[in-house]
Amino acid sequence: MNALEIAKFLLDETGKKTGRKGTTQDINDVVAKVIAAEFPDTSSDLLREAMWIVNDILSKDEHFRLRKIDPVNITGLDIDTPENGEPICERVNPAALYVDPAYQRQIGARGLRQIRKIVEAWDWNKFKPPICAYAVHDGVTVLKVLDGQHTAIAAASHPEVDFIPIMIVEASATSQQAAAFVGQNTERLQVTPLQLHQSSLVARDLDAMTIDLVCQQAGVTVLRHPGAGGAAKPGQTVAINAIAALINKRGNTQSREILEVLAKAGFAPILKDQIKAVELLLTSEEYSTVLKSDDLVAAIRGTWIADLDAAKQMALAQKWPLWRSLAIVWNRKCKKSRSTSFKTMRAA
């Protein structure tokens, strides 16, 4: 094969494996693997010529052409002046950094595995500087990690890493640091809604404080993290997103009444489908006009496993959401309870 034929083969194989949707690095990785597998004995001069052809073709492909950073149209945006100055960058000993448990979760088994993987496959090309802020601890100025504690711990654990670059932002108070943490992690999947809620509470976020107040009034406790194996005590919950959505839709008073039913019924933990089921029963015209909160509490207390099984069967048969099926199961139990009470009264 000549250089042109080799180049065509490389491009064809690359297209098959990436669909021409990968990054330039993806393309380079595939080309290297194809060369190693298909052309182990081909002369380096011929391969070099083939690669020139490949690079020339890719350079004309819009997908792989180097792009300049251009500003977007910002017409109509209400742009605020930045409250803080731009971050500064420093090199520090990672073992000299601190973590504040007020808004940072403890490292569990999963986090430890992640740290060990980072240490084992340390790669400066993949390194992201932790975000830190100055704070006073026991009368001494220290640097707290707002985001990137796994990276910092991995660096401190690595025998060949003595210093790492960090980015330092202005956030002296704990509430500011928590707010900065929320800002850094709102779009990151690995940070849980529970952790963001806790950080928002520390930052005195109004929405988070409202959720906390409504839950306290209803006798519900929002856990900082799920218990081992999902274990929980009556009235505890990790369904922070469901509660936030409920308050946003129904307001504080109705939301408190809905959550109070589940707390009084002793659910452990209180789940999203339970919240949505009670919401339907206490707010829809179909059910709320004849159903009382106390009757619902009495009907659903202590029978969760059986009720869940019945709701699952109904949801499967009718292709309904589980929460809707659960509401129907609980409404039927309330009807049966009312019917029994009425017969007892008539007999008396």
Automatic annotation (TrEMBL):
UniProt name for this protein: DUF6551 family protein
Organism: Rhizobium brockwellii
Lineage: Bacteria, Pseudomonadati, Pseudomonadota, Alphaproteobacteria, Hyphomicrobiales
